[in-house]
Write a structure and sequence with these properties.
The chain is built from three helices and five strands; from the N terminus they run αβββαββα. It is of the alpha+beta class. About 15% of the residues are buried.
Amino acid sequence: MSTIFDKILDGEIPCHRIYEDEHVLAFLDIGPLSSGHTLVIPKERKAHLHELSEDAAAAVGRVLPRLCRAVLEATGATAYNVLQNNGAEAHQAVFHVHFHIIPRTTEGGLGVEWNAGRLSDEDATKLKSAIGAALDAG
C-alpha cells in the first residue's frame, strides 16, 4: 500500500525538503505541532522501525543529531522531542518509518502524558530472560 511518504519520495507530491542524501529525506511537517516541526524518513520503504535494515537505521541515526541541532538553531528553541511511533495502537498514522523532530517552545510542541507503572522483580526477571533470548535468536 502506497503512503504519502512514498508519493513524496517518488516526486508525486511536493515537500519542503530541508535535507536529503542517498538514504534519508527530511522535510517540514505540513501539520506542525510547533514551528520547525520536521519529519525524517528513510528512503527504504518499511512500515515499522523493527523492519528496517541495519544500514537504513544507521543512516537515520547518523543524521538525526545534525538535524536536531539545525532545527534548534533555526527556531531558537532550546528543547525538543524526537518521536517515532510503530503501529496503529502507538498512534502511527503513516505506515512508513518516520521520526518527528518537534521543537518545544512556550507556544507549542508535543503534549505528553506519562502514566508510569511499576516493574516487579518477578516481571523484570521474566522480561529480561525473554528479551535476551530474542536477541540471541536474531
